[in-house]
Amino acid sequence: MAVHIPDMAIRSYLGHEVRSTTGQLLGHIVDVLADAESAVPEWVVVSLRGLLPRHRALPCALLLRTTRGLVVPVSRRTLRDSPQIWLGSAMTARQELDLHVYWSGH
């Protein structure tokens, strides 16, 4: 049975694996991005598997905790095709808009 993860608990998942619902390893959570005004976590940044470091943001609302660990109902390709995130810099309003537009269609 899958359950949504409470906002406060999301920070404790840094470093954890994220898998698709089919069990495919997508990457590891390396950061949590919160709303600047409310401080509520909205995105987790996933470091994708592969030779080159690539980072993508997933809406926290998609994270599910299951008996298999953290799962998201998206494919590796869907995550890989989402807008890129750069670690160490604040997300711009444009980047956040691009993410909302992308994820609202998936």
Structural write-up:
Strands 1-6-7-2-3-4-5 form a 7-stranded mixed sheet. It is 20% helix and 34% strand. It contains 3 helices and 7 strands, in the order E-H-E-E-E-E-E-E-H-H. The two termini are 22 Å apart. With 106 residues, it is α+β, with helices and mostly antiparallel strands.
Please describe the topology of this protein:
Elements lengths: L2 E2 L2 H4 L6 E4 L4 E10 L6 E8 L6 E5 L4 E3 L2 E4 L3 H5 L12 H12 L2
Parallel strand pairs: 2-7
Antiparallel strand pairs: 1-6, 2-3, 3-4, 4-5, 6-7
Q: Give a quick account of the main beta sheet: strands, pairing sense, barrel closure.
A: 7 strands, mixed
Query: So what's the overall shape?
Result: globular
**Percent strand:** 25-35%
**Spatial ordering of strands, largest sheet:** 1-6-7-2-3-4-5
Elements, N to C (H/E) = EHEEEEEEHH
**Count of helical regions:** 3
In which range does the helix fraction lie?
A: 10-25%
Secondary structure tally: strands: 7
First and last CA, distance: 22 Å
- Decide which structural class fits the backbone: alpha+beta
Work out the radius of gyration.
13 Å
Low-confidence segments, given as residue ranges, are none
Mean pLDDT, to the nearest integer, reads: 86
Outline of this structure?
The chain contains three helices and seven strands. It has 106 residues and is an alpha+beta fold. A seven-stranded mixed beta sheet has the order 1-6-7-2-3-4-5.
Task: List the main descriptive attributes of the protein structure presented here.
3 helices; 34% strand; 106 residues; alpha+beta
